[in-house]
Structure formats: structure tokens, C-alpha cells
Specification:
The protein is 0% helix and 55% strand. The protein contains no helices and 14 strands. The model has no long low-confidence stretch (mean pLDDT 89). It is an all-beta fold. β4 and β5 form a beta hairpin.
Length: 140
């Protein structure tokens, strides 16, 4: 399956064999763009929204099971570390490290708000910066 999120404020699950949409998740009344997504370690789907909110979805029940609150601007990047922590980047100029199952913010990294995030297998965070440079930070 392929997941897509967009400015129509939905998340869609696509069957790539049949080339059809098999599921559509709506934001339950929230009128927000879905800017980025990532699967959590336990196969839930995280979506980063325009308000700064991150929603964790159970795709089987199609319900939001957790909300990660902390960013004050649009979330543009989501990724996971090798030990299951979630990393989010926002236009609020912060990157946040989360425990997705509890919704707890474990760390806030100032000045590394990013449109592009990646985590290496040895848990180094790579942030794409607005000036087109990269910042690398150790998350261990």
C-alpha cells in the first residue's frame, strides 16, 4: 500500500496492484492540510498537520489514537529513529523528539526546524535547513 496526504485534508491508502484508493481518513472536522506522514514502530500512521499538531492513526479502526502537541507552526517533516522515537520538524524552527505511544515530547532542538529530516541507522539526525545547508546532530 501507498499512503498519501494532501491539501484536500485527507489521508488516502492506495492499493498499488489494483491502482485504487481503498481507504480515506478524514481529519474529524479539522480543516488542515496533511503535510507529511511516517509509520511508527508499531505500524500506526503519524500525520503532520498545518496547525503544528501530529496525529497518530490506527489504520484498522480509522481512529486517531494519540495527538502530539507542541509545535506552534506547520509540521513539514516526520521520521523515526532506529529505537522507535519519532522526530518532527516544523516551521516554528524546532525539531522535536517524541515517544509516539505516550505522546510525550522527549527533547526540543532549537534552530533545527526543518523541511527535510532523516535519521541515520546510528541515530544521527540530519536536518535540511532553509539556507540549503545540512545540520547533523547526534540523538544518542
Amino acid at each position: 500500500y501507498l499512503m498519501s496526504g494532501s491539501s484536500d485534508k485527507t489521508i488516502k491508502m492506495w492499493d498499488l496492484r489494483q491502482l485504487i484508493c481503498v481507504k480515506t481518513l478524514t481529519n474529524n472536522g479539522y480543516q488542515e492540510f496533511v503535510n507529511c506522514m511516517a509509520f511508527t514502530e508499531d505500524s500506526y500512521l503519524a500525520s503532520g498537520l498545518g496547525s503544528g499538531l501530529i496525529k497518530i492513526w490506527d489504520l484498522d479502526s480509522e481512529e486517531v489514537i494519540n495527538r502530539l502537541v507542541g509545535h506552534t507552526a506547520v509540521v513539514l517533516g516526520l521520521t523515526l529513529t532506529s529505537d522507535g522515537r519519532m522526530v518532527s520538524g516544523s516551521l516554528d524552527k524546532t525539531t522535536r523528539i517524541w515517544a509516539p505511544s505516550s505522546g510525550s515530547c522527549l527533547q526540543i532542538i532549537e534552530g533545527c526546524g526543518s523541511r527535510a529530516l532523516a535519521v541515520t541507522p546510528d541515530n544521527r539526525l540530519v536536518c535540511g535547513m532553509p539556507d540549503y545547508s545540512l545540520q547533523v546532530r547526534d540523538l544518542n
